[in-house]
Amino acid sequence: MQINKHSIQEYNQGQLQEHSRRYDFAASSVKDVEGVLQKLMDFQVAIPSWALGTGGTRFGRFPGGGEPRSLEEKIEDVGLLHRLNGASGAISLHIPWDIPTNASHIKALAAQHGLRFDAMNSNTFQDQPGQGLSYKFGSMQHVDKAVRRQAVEHNIEVIEHGVALGSDSLTVWLSDGSSFPGQLNFRKAFENTLESLQEVYAALPENWKMFVEYKAFEPNFYSMTVGDWGQSLLYANKLGPKAYTLVDLGHHLPNANIEQIVSLLLMEGKLGGFHFNDSKYGDDDLTVGSIKPYQLFLIFSELLEGMDARGMNHATDLGWMIDASHNVKDPLEDLLQSVEAIMIAYAQALLVDRKALAAAQQENDVARCQEVLQEAYRTDVRPLVAEARLRAGAALRPLQFFRELKVRENLIKERGRKTVATGL
Ligand SMILES: [Mn+2]
């Protein structure tokens, strides 16, 4: 399904009066509103190819119909999102779920939709049909060198797919670890993993980055071989300048101070990318901003503080990606809500009065520090985010427009009710 520019303009026209009223009020209290709007327009969040279908739980999966049946249809879906919100201009592919059989065709199709290819994701957490050796007891950590070799070769293959598509980064998330005490020699598991990662690192093209993603638990429940940011940083430091830590919001133990983690990783020049989602208990993969929007704001606030201190470009110097699963909502609606939540947190973080905060910190004026942060957090920035969309030619209210257009109903008509997208 395609949405043409004209229908968006027509829709926006009907919303314009109400929007202008809200926008004028919001803009009147923002110092450099044009600068803020430009940053919002530049900021793009990559959509993972596996999030376009309905996810499942360990117990069941309830597909909603009209799911993309091929990589081409996944790209069309991300194109649709980008058309609606102007902020989803990238797609992150997972291999082998989305192997591009004809790279130049896939690249051209993405370009037609204004999309670029973000980080490529490898998969050594599942066994694939026809695969020689099993990852049941790990991949890069495995006691058998042949299994490690297979995992390394897979990652190199993923890099090759990425090169053909114009991507420039590889995300490695390993499910390696152990579920019972005594199962693993921790040091040997680390050394094997490091050696394997070094072999993949050696295959990275000059301009590529490698992101080492960590996770505290699951699928292994006693130890994870890349279990926290300290371990990830250890690997990244040993690997070299092209290796970075990737922070996934859901991959921490409860109540971890993620904003402090990103601050210190940025200080070390070792934060490479970010996976957005939200959670109440563990790696729940819920819609971004649905449970803890204040935490999301605090993380963004530290991200901007740290990036600005290093002169980094907010839009391009880190990999920004959603990594979530949608079990009960329409995946496209969920993704629209997620991107909106990210843009809101980003806009709020842009409004933090950094000078006032630094001065209050210097004075140990704790109450004032909180006031400064919450002044930004409690500002309703939604009209600013909407204005950025309007200027980008996207819809003022993407989710409402999505429903007005009956996008899902149309996709079901096009693709059928019983389609199942590859992915989680
Ligand atoms: Mn992730």
TrEMBL record:
Any one GO MF annotation of this record: isomerase activity
InterPro entries: L-rhamnose_isomerase, Xyl_isomerase-like_sf
Annotated keywords: Isomerase, Manganese, Metal-binding
Domain of life: Bacteria
Coiled coil: none
SUPFAM superfamilies (UniProt xref): Xylose isomerase-like
Protein name: L-rhamnose catabolism isomerase
